[in-house]
Design brief:
- The structure holds 2 protein chains of 2 kinds.
- Chain A is an alpha+beta fold.
- Chain A folds into 2 domains: 230 residues, Rossmann fold (3-Layer(aba) Sandwich), CATH 3.40.50.300; 119 residues, OB fold (Dihydrolipoamide Acetyltransferase, E2P) (Beta Barrel).
- Chain A is built from 8 helices and 21 strands.
- A 6-stranded mixed β-sheet of chain A has the order 6-7-8-3-9-10, sandwiched between helices.
- Chain A starts with a strand and ends with a strand.
- Chain B is an all-alpha fold.
- Helix content of chain B is 73%, strand content 0%.
- Chain B is built from 15 helices and no strands.
- In chain B, helix 4 packs across helix 15.
- The mean pLDDT of chain B is 90.
- Classes of the chains: A alpha+beta, B mainly alpha.
- Chains A and B meet through strand 6 and helix 2 of A and helix 10 and helix 11 of B.
Chain lengths: 359, 286
């Protein structure tokens, strides 16, 4: 297995720059997830690592080798595609064996590797079938098998779970996590699904407009987002972003005024924040609690109540704008009810006028 | 819930009438199209007197089977040789068209290279040039090469592509998922191998259609072999049959027998490949 290092990587389509200078070091055996909105360049970046897209500027290193100009097959990577990309006219066995045969392996070695990988993924009984005779989950397992048999240095996954139903997604997610644990391989996974990113990743790379917004562990990007974009993108339901004005420093806290003349004390030293500064207060939905009595209160009218069984998500419309509240268990409030919620400011995140996090 | 009684499930009379009219129209149209073909076949088994007999004989009586033997043994009409020439000519053109056009279409549809769209546009522009315009310079070129009286000028150009079929195949190639080719590249396949082993199997029906169209078109091709070929033994059937008709204008039964055997391979070919025709029509409207 190997590390992956991207240095000043840029990609242009005509005059449009889609990857705008990426510097990233992925450690050996690390599971890194690229997340970002559609068109942010995450799949393009993955394809550049695979060698399926040219690198216009910069370099890609896998281990100690500069692979920028190498053909895909010579980079030591294997890729799992969103639509599986299994060869429709070949059996599962031939799909797995195709790359090994191209590499000039003996029939015995090909057979051994195919049998080993299919046993690991429990697809042995599928080996004689063509892709059209398989379910989505089975196809995906065969596609993963095709990557495993090559014993690559780096596994690349391009939204591999997007075409699966919810239950199968969870199952495959678990399988990929187990695979990473068993193979101890370097894996790069592209997704727009935050749950996949948060559950699978050692580190998350948040991309936007061809640039990296933040690289960090799932806990870091969730609890300490670098900027408003990351804060808004990571977390479902999305973070509450409240416009505020700093009134004064009050001991070891800041006194803030929110819309609707609500005042609150934000604990912490916050060096560099002056009175009169306009800031944005970020509060995760679980940090707003209906009627808990602890902390300053916000109020709003319920516009939507999502009862998910284990928790309830309330969408409120109030003087501070739209608020999202996540409460454990069933909530008695329904559409049209006026609700008061308390802010738990211990985990609040503060952003300056430019949208950068203030520490 | 119980099933409705049988009488209630019968189609209403208006729908039945519509179906009868529909089938009557279809049968009439089919008969109109089939009549010349039927006339050709029955005439092949008559003699001249029976062909022009009035009232018309709708079935040959007696059936003159000796006409078949006569067709294959006449010294002044090397039918079998010309039949084989036609098979060779049409077969090679079909193979050449499929190979060259699918390679070009793969390049235009599946590979990215600078100037691709411009070159593709130029290729399509070639469709606008009437073949007769380029005929003379091409003829002079082959003459200079000393290959005039051979099948080279008839077959070789089809190994260099045909704008219409390139365009047609490119449309099919655009429908092949790009990820399949990417997966093959990661598996270490060369572009040539990807074209041959991965992409062509996905457009099999389109390829068969192109091959069939090229075969049928060439089977009927008259002008080009007439100009380039000199010897009767080298003629394909299209020219051979015409030459025979010109020289033996009175022998209608022999001409009809020749025409019947000329049409027969195409009929058999269509019977075995109509599935691909249907697929082609259903997928891309060709």
């Amino acid at each position: 297995m190997s590390s992956v290092t991207l240095s000043g990587v840029r990609k242009l389509y005509g005059i449009h720059e889609v990857i705008k200078g990426i510097d990233l070091a992925i450690e050996d055996r690390e599971f890194v997830v690229f997340v970002g909105p559609s068109g942010c360049g995450k799949s393009t970046l993955l394809r550049m690592i695979a060698g399926l897209e040219d690198v216009d500027y910069g370099s890609v290193m896998i281990g100690a080798r500069d692979v920028t100009e190498l053909a895909p097959a010579r980079r030591g990577v294997a890729m799992v595609f969103q639509n599986y990309a299994l060869y429709p006219h070949m059996s599962a066995y031939d799909n797995l064996a195709y790359g090994l045969r191209r590499a000039g392996m003996t029939a015995a070695e090909v057979d051994r590797r195919v049998r080993d990988a299919s046993a690991m993924l429990q697809i042995t009984e599928l080996l004689g079938r063509r892709p059209k005779a398989m379910s989505g989950g089975q196809r995906q397992r065969v596609a993963i098998g095709r990557a495993i048999v090559r014993q690559p240095e780096v596994f690349l996954f391009d939204e591999p779970l997007s075409n699966l139903d919810a239950a199968l997604r969870v199952e495959m997610r678990t399988q990929i996590a187990r695979l990473h644990h068993d193979l101890q391989a370097t894996m790069i996974f592209v997704t727009h699904d935050q749950v996949e990113a948060m559950t699978l990743a050692d580190r998350i790379v948040v991309l936007n407009g061809g640039r990296i917004e933040q690289v960090g562990t799932p806990r870091e990007v969730y609890h300490r987002p670098a900027n408003l974009f990351v804060a808004g993108f990571i977390g479902s339901p999305a973070i509450n972003l409240l416009k505020a004005e700093v009134l004064e420093r009050d001991g070891r806290a800041l006194r803030l005024r929110l819309a609707g003349e609500v005042e609150c004390l934000l604990p912490g030293l916050w060096p560099g924040v002056r009175g009169g500064a306009r800031v944005t207060l970020g509060l995760r939905p679980e940090r707003l609690r209906p009627d808990s009595g602890a902390g300053p209160l916000l109020s709003g009218v319920v516009t939507l109540a999502e009862h998910l069984g284990g928790e309830t998500i309330l969408h409120l419309d109030g003087p501070q704008g739209r608020l999202t509240v996540k409460t454990p268990g069933e909530s008695p409030q329904g559409i049209g009810d006026r609700v008061e919620v308390a802010m738990d400011l211990a985990e609040a995140i503060l952003f300056d006028e430019g949208g950068q996090r203030i520490d | 819930m119980t099933a409705p009684p049988l009488a209630a499930r019968r189609k209403p009379p208006r729908k039945t009438l519509a179906r009868i009219v529909y089938h009557a129209v279809m049968l009439t149209v089919s008969a109109i199209f089939l009549l010349p073909f039927y006339w050709m076949v029955i005439s092949a088994f008559k003699n001249n007197a029976e062909i022009f007999a009035r009232p018309m004989l709708w079935f040959p009586d007696p059936i003159r089977w000796e006409n078949v033997a006569d067709l294959f043994t006449r010294p002044d009409f090397p039918f079998l040789q010309q039949f084989l020439n036609s098979c060779f000519y049409a077969g090679m053109v079909a193979v050449g068209t499929c190979l060259s056009c699918s390679l070009a279409a793969y390049s235009f549809g599946c590979l990215r290279w600078r100037g691709r769209n411009f070159v593709f546009g130029l290729t399509i522009c070639a469709l606008l040039i009437p073949p007769i315009v380029t005929f003379l310079p091409v003829f002079l070129g082959w003459s200079k090469l000393g290959l005039k009286d051979s099948y080279w000028p008839l077959i070789a150009p089809y190994f260099l592509g045909d704008a219409f079929y390139i365009f047609m195949l490119r449309q099919f190639f655009l429908g092949v998922p790009r990820e399949l080719m990417d997966a093959a590249r990661l598996d270490g396949a060369s572009e040539f191998r990807i074209w041959w082993q991965i992409v062509l199997p996905q457009v099999k029906s389109a390829l068969v259609i192109v091959g069939l169209f090229a075969f049928v078109y060439t089977w009927h091709e008259f002008f080009t072999p007439l100009i380039y070929l000199q010897n009767r033994e080298d003629f394909p059937l299209s020219v051979g049959l015409f030459t025979f008709r010109s020289q033996r204008a009175a022998e209608w039964s022999m001409a009809m027998m020749g025409a019947t055997f000329t049409a027969l391979p195409l009929l058999v070919l269509f019977l075995f490949t109509q599935r691909f025709f249907r697929q082609g029509l259903a997928t891309k409207g060709f």
